[in-house]
Design a protein that fits this description.
single chain, 661 residues, mainly alpha, Amino acid/polyamine transporter I, Rossmann fold, five-stranded parallel beta sheet, two-stranded antiparallel ribbon, 7 strands, 63% helix, membrane, transmembrane, amino acid transmembrane transporter activity
Length: 661
Amino acid sequence: SAQSEGGTRGVRAKREKHGGLGQISATALAGNDITSSCLYVVGLCASSAGKLAPVCLLIVAAILALFRRVYGEVVSAIPVNGGSFTVLLNATSKAVASLAAVLSLLSYLATSVVSATDAVLYAQRLLPDLPQVLTTIFVLAFFAALTVWGIKDSAKVAVVMFVAHLSTLAVLVGFSIAYIVNDGGAVLSDNWAAPLPDIVSNGQLIARGGVAAALLFGTSSAMLGVSGFETTANMVEEMRSPVVLIQTLRNTWLSVVAINPLLSLVAMGVLPLSDMLKDSGSVLASIAQRAGGDWLRVWVCVDASAVLAGAVLTAYVGITGLARRLAMDRVLPEALLVTNKARGTNHWIVLAFFGISASLVVVLNGNIESLSQVYTSSFLSVMALMAIGCLLLKWKRPQIPRAVSASWMATIVAGVAVIIGLFGNVARSPQGAQVFLLYFAAAGTLIAANFQRLRLLRMTLYASRWAVARVARWQARVSTRLTTTIRDMQAKPLVFFAKTADLALLNKAVLYVRDNEVTQRLCVVHVCRRDDGSDAAPGMAQAVQLLDSIYPKLRIDYVLVKAGPAGFGPAAVEYICGELGVPPNLCFMASPDSSFAHTVGSLGGVRVISRPRPRRRRFVPGVTNAMAPPHDADDARAVALSDVTDLSGDGDGAAARPHES
């Protein structure tokens, strides 16, 4: 109809407008985090691998090359924020995906606190009287305010920090090479002749110095040199196009390849291994002092403070995209989606994250050793879950188009490598694993409570009825509010886009809603092109009516949409979502085949489910097979099929037919 065609044209015109992060700003946001790791990973890797530290860092760069394709495939197939949570949500269940959500939240929380504290520690090398706790909270508050102000403005700050950091590293490497040449490579020769270090944990010998132990534990320690790579998957919706994502993954990988092994090599040529192990947390400052003098040391310390503070900004940007996705999928409270009128940003997400981070700084009193172990374990776990999610996406959703494709073997090798690195860090610091489990249990309890909020609300409702029975004035108010909340949650519909009246597929969609969502309403939407609805799928209304009678606890409506010649596509999805008041992430459809004219990412976050596989049926002669409804007779009720809705407004919709009880 003219009305629907006009609406879809407006939607298409709005989607053609470009904005958001470009290649440089996106690379800077992720690069500040991933390149800041060189400030501590050079000394940390040397303490485990000794002279083989550059080799371990090259191995990690090769592993990251595999993850570059893994992340590219996953995010180009489903280009929405959320990272491992989003891919597991589309490939498994919401309960499994919530595990990735907990790990991602812990990773960003630890990133913000550890980076802010390390930034202040570097600043204290220049200003010893600087108060650590108060200054750390100020750094967190400053970047919280910058994030609330807007991502475009914060990206400009990130670009300045990133360019300054790369310039500083280039100057440091240049002076270090000059020092090695003037020294004749004497320090490098002495370090190469030194024996490999023993692996010790809490005073106990884990492994004696050897090539295998050095490569295993050195590579495990060097895994921290790529932290921040996962942030790209949580700001893809803020990028101009999926092409920017591919470019950002390439640029961050190149920075890891070019910076970490080279810095480790020049460190071997400037500092003796004993000095590197003694001052592993600020190796670059020691290199600058010896290669260039006091002025270069001051420069490096200022740059280190700035780029570590920039990693805090990356954490804010990443947590905003992740929390927004979790709230949209009802894993976190939907109140976090509220935006301020002045800047249009999710201020409650930023303020809540700042409050938790600042409270951790106060509670730990600046001692972040335990939180560093949480950072290591959660980051590596998120990377492993991303590899697992990529494998599940290949297996269950092979029809979804991808801009990049990682091979099965590359994905498996990447996942196994990260898991080995995780176990290597746990073996090196078992106490850190215990601390991680405590933080994980606390965060998991909060997620689980929100995930089961419907049951908790019901329990609260029953408890309130018993508790406030003696106080009638308060009992009515509390009961009414909680009842309204539950009914509102159950009344929010989900939308399933059906192309044909495939009863098995429709039944699978109903089971998916029943098992994964709290709603009690499902709208089956069928899009046709002709104004008279003559090209609608035959038997669709009867199939929906049958399922509505089989599942009495779930209201199933049939909606027929006349979208005009454009048919089903991104514009039709957004138009239907606007008319029904349902966000795209609460819509789903069957996994499309290669003939589908659009990408799943262009549909605005619509979920996909796999098509049911046909099963062979055995027929016994003389026996009639009958399927009984899956509910008891006591649950039978009279249900009425809703009117077939015509969103075009021309009044040509099919007539409503009530069910018979």
